[in-house]
Amino acid sequence: MTQQTSASVVHLTERTPVVSGSEMLASLVPPPQFGAATFESYRADPAYPSQEATKELLQKFAGRQEPVKRAGLFHRALKIAAMKPGVYLDGGFGVGKTHLLASVYHATNSRRKYFGSFIEYTALVGALGYRNTVDLLRGSDLLCIDEFELDDPGDTMVMTRLLGELVASGTKLAATSNTPPNALGEGRFAAQDFLREIHAMSESFETIRIDGVDYRQRAIDGSAAVFDDTEYAQCIADAAERGSVSDDAFADVIRHLAQVHPSRYIRLIDGLDLVGLRDVHVLTDQSEALRFVAFVDRVYDAQVPVAATGVSLDPVFSEEMLGGGYRKKYLRAVSRLIALTHSAKERAGEV
User: Fold this and answer.
1) Other CB atoms closer than 10 Å to residue 286's CB: what's the count?
2) CA of 218: how far to CAs of 95, 213, 310, 341, in Å?
3) Rounded to whole angstroms, what are the CA distances from 8 to 1, 296, 351?
4) In terms of C-beta density within 10 A (0-12 exposed, 13-18 middle, 19 or more buried), how is residue 5 classed?
5) Strand 245-249 to strand 274-280: parallel, antiparallel, or no bridges (unpaired)?
6) CA distance 339 to 351
7) Are 138 and 180 in contact (CB under 8 A)?
8) CB distance 344 to 306 below 8 Å
9) What are the DSSP calls for 187-212, one per residue?
10) If we measure between CA atoms, which residue out of 83, 50, 49 comes closest to residue 65?
């Protein structure tokens, strides 16, 4: 199949983004999908009471607590127990942790607050140096860390040290995390792993557990949408008339991701209204698969639909990899790909 050529069609493989430290710092805000996330817009599943309870606790953490109640006439006001400077949201993927994290960010009344994924913070350290990063973030009122990576001991140590210095200066922390290697099962909770890996900071975090099922599966079936070649060409052409789209062979994109630091993946999709991937095949190399997961995370954050041909994107990770230590990451990516490909089909008027 030949690739599309149009002024509005670009190729990810021709993009080699460079991001400065100052740009990284300025970009530490919730992704577009959660740009307006609030506690009020969080849809708690009534089947799992812990979701509503978590929302209430986080409102208190963000400073949105009810007025202090008095014990009675002539009695002093009852004190509300102070929360720790950090909260860790513990739960499976798709239960709304990122929405709640963004709600904390928006509800916190401060101009000095930051929201980013773990990889964005470690990239900031890499770009500016550890001490410069501390100096820039010191004095901030809130730091939100989404998808705290527990796979790399070196990065975890750097982040633990960074967070320790910031908490000492008065910064509050809110975090979620991924499951580390060898932690099987998409529903497995990671609180003990998280606290163990950040042992130097564990006493500063209050764990809040959220039960539930992946909300993306509540209203969508379990298979990614696939285009045939004719449908794909029409989808790309239609999308190009409305905005900017990308069109690349899947194999070429996978190779290109190895040449771009994951912290810059978000810039690969700058300005795109649709990502097109031709001739998708099953991934069997762990490094390629993990880079693709990081790319999918950024595409999902930006809510850019994905049109694809070839193998359906839900079995894109081999059975062997799904049975390994990164199972939870792969399943989260599959869940997101299902949603993104159905979004592309809906735009094409086929679902």
Assistant:
1) 15
2) 11, 8, 26, 16
3) 19, 22, 25
4) exposed
5) parallel
6) 12
7) no
8) yes
9) T---HHHHHHHTGGGGGGEEEEEE--
10) 83
What tokens appear for 254 in the block?
């996978």
Q: How far apart are the first and last CA of the chain?
A: 24
Q: Which of 83, 159, 85, 154 is nearest to 117 (CA)?
A: 159
pTM: 0.74
Q: Record the tokens describing residue 204, joined without a space.
A: 């500063």
Place of tokens 């509005």: 8
151 alpha-carbon distance from chain centroid: 16
Tens-digit pLDDT profile for residues 4-50: 445 589 999 999 998 777 788 888 999 888 999 999 999 998 999 99
DSSP letters along 240-282, please? HHHS-EEEEEHHHHHHHHTTS-GGGHHHHTTT-SEEEEEEE--
Q: Supply φ then ψ for residue 249, to 5 degrees.
A: -70, 135
Q: What is the pLDDT of residues 309-335, one digit of tens each?
A: 999 999 999 999 988 878 878 888 998
